[in-house]
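Researcher: Go.
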Amino acid sequence: MRKLTMILLVVLLALSACAGKAASLEGEWKLVSYGDAKNPTLALPDVDTLFAFGADGQLSGSVGCNAFGAGYKVNGAEITFESALSTMKFCEGVMDQEGAVLKILSEKTLNFELNGKQLTLTSPDGSSVIVLEKK
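Model: Structure:
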């Protein structure tokens, strides 16, 4: 009986090690596309975008011109954002992209899927997306 208990313990430890740690959102991400989930708009070329998810639950970044920041919390496959704050500079040619991305983030709770180096944030109704790529 003792041998069986020891074998079961070893098997459970091995299985828990195989499960590994869940993939992390922490780090820097670049905008790939956004908007309508069925026909997303590609991010503007030659425009620096950055989403930096911190271990402290803070998101900061730039969607082209203005800096933004918000707190975030992950719960399973959902991510909830606090109200995003943004600077208010006018930058011709990038304002549509910024407005659309920040509007999606203001949905508050989004679903997310992490697939390799790609992170997809989706509105609860599935109509809007933000696709990011790990830098």
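Model: The domain at 24-134 is CATH 2.40.128.270 (Lipocalin).
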